[in-house]
Amino acid sequence: MTGLDTLRPRLPSPVQELSDPRFARHGLGLLLKRDDLIHPDLVGNKWRKLAPNLQAAAGRTLVTFGGAYSNHLRATAAAGRLLGLPTVGVVRGQELAGRPLNPSLARCAADGMRLHFVDRSTYRRKTEPDTLARVLDAVGAPEAYVVPEGGSNAAAVRGCRALGEELGGHADVVGIACGTGGTLAGLAAGLPPGRRALGIPVLKGGFLTAETRRLQEEAFGGPRGSWHLDDRFHFGGYARVPAALDAFAEDFEQRHGVPVERLYVAKLLYGLVALAEEGAFARGTTVAAVVTGRPFPQAPSTASR
Ligand SMILES: *Cc1c(COP(=O)(O)O)cnc(C)c1O
What are the required cofactors (predicted)? Predict the structure, then answer.
């Protein structure tokens, strides 16, 4: 172990039953899978994806990639601080270098992550061996353990199987917001037969079916479980949060007392409500929504576990 167990993650994460008339009047049950409560700093699916990679890194410098507001970068930086592991974040956008850090990157830096800004064309080519070697050289960590953007590699996908296993006895359909598709790929593999996963992409582009298949191939050697995507709820693309979505999320928070992260979780919940009202689920179905994250910046945590 790398000391991960000493961080005392709350696993399996809690399952919470909600009473919501938008589901109840269609004969549907609604559950929340509270992955946002797994750990105060390594939130949600980021714990599930990072844990196996932190083990594999075995103390080596961990280099990973992200945009200026990446939840994955923040989680990686926090893991570095908690485990005493050096981390480097390669950030998209040369123009950000020398500017004041935004709150997300400031948190990364405060957690000891070294930030390295690259131009967009280098960032796009980051998985090409030459480009990667040059970046690792530039950050002085040629022997680093590299985790891809968004944290989705085979180890991460396998780590997300547990999410499906934990939910298998509770829900018929499990909804999950998707960025890279890694969490969906693992979740679907962990669900027992007869249960299915429903992915709501938060990015525009329609590339995610192929990418999720590719990740399952890489992690398991072939397709696993039953899953599909509904591409109608990205609201224009990543980090687009129109007023209507914000109002929906605020209303959900007020109804249920659960903080709703806007970039992913709000789009998932909006999509599930829309599908329920369209009659997309048979009466008697129990739908679970995975709460994969928490709003950021968040109020200072007073919770002590
Ligand atoms: C990263 C993230 C996701 C997306 O996970 P993928 O495995 O990349 O699809 C979903 N929700 C939240 C809150 C996230 O931070």
Answer: pyridoxal 5'-phosphate
Quote the ligand 1 centre to 74 CA distance (angstroms).
12
Answer yes or no: is 302 within a domain: no
Task: Output b/e per residue, 82-101; b: 16+ Cβ within 10 A.
Answer: bbebbbbbbbbeeebeeeee
- Regarding whether 160 and 25 lie in a shared domain, the answer is yes
Please say which residue of 151, 179, 197 terminates a domain: 151
Whether ligand 1 lies within 6 angstroms of the CB of 156 is answered as: no
Tell which atom from ligand 1 comes closest to the C-alpha of 49. Answer: 7
* Contact yes or no for 73/46 (Cβ under 8 A): no
Q: What is the residue-averaged pLDDT of the chain?
A: 94
Both 23 and 100 in a single domain? no
Q: Is beta strand 173-178 parallel, antiparallel or unpaired with respect to 196-201?
A: parallel
The pLDDT tens digits for 156-191 are: 999 999 999 999 999 999 999 999 999 999 999 999
Beta carbon of 271 within 6 Å of any ligand 1 atom? no
Is the CB of 159 inside a 6 Å radius of any atom of ligand 1?
A: no
pLDDT of 298 reads 47
Does residue 164 sit within a domain? yes
Place of tokens 């004041």: 100
Total count of domains within the chain: 2
For the Cβ of 175 lying below 6 angstroms from any atom of ligand 1, the answer is: no
